């Protein structure tokens, strides 16, 4: 076997290893173009720059992108459905958002697709816990239903009561946290497959993708657009890299080298240029930010930002 063949084999092994380690322990344990008409994108751009614009309006304008598995309009719909009441996040649309983000990552090529497989394993864990809770309703909220939203203000009382009437153990982020703490399944010192620990790993990954999309939406500096590979690596270094071992960080950088060029992202969301891409991605980033901030607050209030 020649030197080049050995090097290629070594890189493949590293990337396969990355796929299994990506979310372990803190994400560390264990093209045909479908261009849309200018009217649609111009409306989107106007809304994204309008002080009265909101994600729902933009989501209505965005249409399906023929020939693409990933659909930015579906991602927005799920993200918009996730925030609940004043400070909670519904888990079903949250996990559905991840389903679409997994498709986004898989579209970027097999190297990043390996990472998405580990993320899928995390969403599966939470879904299985939710299914188990539904099959055993006697083990759900019980007498502790009112403690789930205990951090809410008095102004939230009406919404909290409404929430408790149809809340199951894994209905939302706060209901899951409350129930798992009550059951004692959250270990603050050892690794477990609790929903809270699993959510934390997804939460960290969401920040990485949010920052990557935010950077991808930036206007060019000195008329020069930076490569998606560089932007993704920067987003990773300021987020997930803080929770990864040296080996996983090196393997991650190998995966990012294989990212497509910027033109691919135009086709992926059915736009024609950077201005239109920015209008779409800025909206996505804004809505992701709302979901991320709510989840961050819930985890922080319960001391869960550093679960092993």
TrEMBL record:
InterPro entries: GLTP_sf, Glycolipid_transfer_prot_dom
Name the UniProt record assigns to this protein: Glycolipid transfer protein domain containing 2b
GO CC terms, sorted: cytosol; membrane
Domain Glycolipid transfer protein: 90-270
Pfam families to which the protein is assigned, alphabetical: GLTP
GO MF annotation list: ceramide 1-phosphate binding; ceramide 1-phosphate transfer activity
Signal peptide range: 1-23
Domain of life: Eukaryota
Keyword list, A-Z: Signal
């Amino acid at each position: 076997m020649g030197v080049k063949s050995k090097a290629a084999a070594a890189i493949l092994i590293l990337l396969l290893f990355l796929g299994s380690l990506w979310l372990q322990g803190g994400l560390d344990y264990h093209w045909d173009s479908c261009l849309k008409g200018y009217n649609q994108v111009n409306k989107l751009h106007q809304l994204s720059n309008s002080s009265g614009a909101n994600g729902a309006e933009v989501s209505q304008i965005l249409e399906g992108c023929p020939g693409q598995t990933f659909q930015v309009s579906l991602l927005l719909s799920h993200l918009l459905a996730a925030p609940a009441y004043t400070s909670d996040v519904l888990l079903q649309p949250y996990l559905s958002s991840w389903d679409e983000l997994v498709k986004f990552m898989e579209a970027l090529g097999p190297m990043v697709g390996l990472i998405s497989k580990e993320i899928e394993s995390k969403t599966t864990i939470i879904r299985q816990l939710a299914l188990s809770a539904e099959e055993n309703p006697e083990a759900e909220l019980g007498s502790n239903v009112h403690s789930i939203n205990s951090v809410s203000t008095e102004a939230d009382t009406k919404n909290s009561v409404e929430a408790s009437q149809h809340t199951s153990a894994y209905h939302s982020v706060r209901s899951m946290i409350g129930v798992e703490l009550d059951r004692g399944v959250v270990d603050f010192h050892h690794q477990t497959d609790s929903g809270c620990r699993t959510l934390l790993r997804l939460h960290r990954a969401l920040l990485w993708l949010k920052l990557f999309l935010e950077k991808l939406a930036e206007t060019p500096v000195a008329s020069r657009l930076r490569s998606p590979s560089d932007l993704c690596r920067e987003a990773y270094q300021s987020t997930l890299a803080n929770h990864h071992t040296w080996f996983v960080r090196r393997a991650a950088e190998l995966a990012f080298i294989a990212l497509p060029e910027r033109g691919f992202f135009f086709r992926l969301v059915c736009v024609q240029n950077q201005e239109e891409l920015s209008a779409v991605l800025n909206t996505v980033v804004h809505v992701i930010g709302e979901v991320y901030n709510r989840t961050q607050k819930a985890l922080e209030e319960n001391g869960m930002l550093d679960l092993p």
